[in-house]
Every structure is written in structure tokens, then in C-alpha cells.
Amino acid sequence: MLEMRPDCERCGVDLPADEGGAFICSFECTFCAECADQLDEICPNCGGELLDRPARVGAALKKFPGATERRFKG
What we know:
Layout: E1 22-24, E2 30-32, H1 33-38, E3 51-52, H2 58-63
Antiparallel strand pairs: 1-2, 1-3
Protein name: DUF1272 domain-containing protein
InterPro entries: DUF1272
């Protein structure tokens, strides 16, 4: 199951689990659309491809909320 990390690792912008606009690699490194575009959709941590993260909504979000630990080191 995806962690649904709450923020962009590069700029710190909020990325709610129930909204689109987040991009992840296979290790779930998480970036906003703007940062993913600036990175040419390649993860700077592992070199993997950054893909659209699906949103988690409704009952699934209630039962399995997104992570709360922020990854941005600012």
C-alpha cells in the first residue's frame, strides 16, 4: 500500500492524499508536479521514473489515511 506522503521532498508544498498533482518513484520518493517537471520526471534520489501518484478517496482514505511525516528538509 502506498504511504501517500504529505509533501514534496524538494520544495515542501502540501500534497494531500485525496488530490492529484503528486509524482512518485518506485521507492515512493514524492514530488509535486512542478518539481517533477524540473527534474525531467527522474527521481534525484534513486534515478527512477517519476509517475503520477493516484489519489486515495472516500472509504479507503478514512480507513487508510495518508502519512503525516513530512520529508522536506528545507
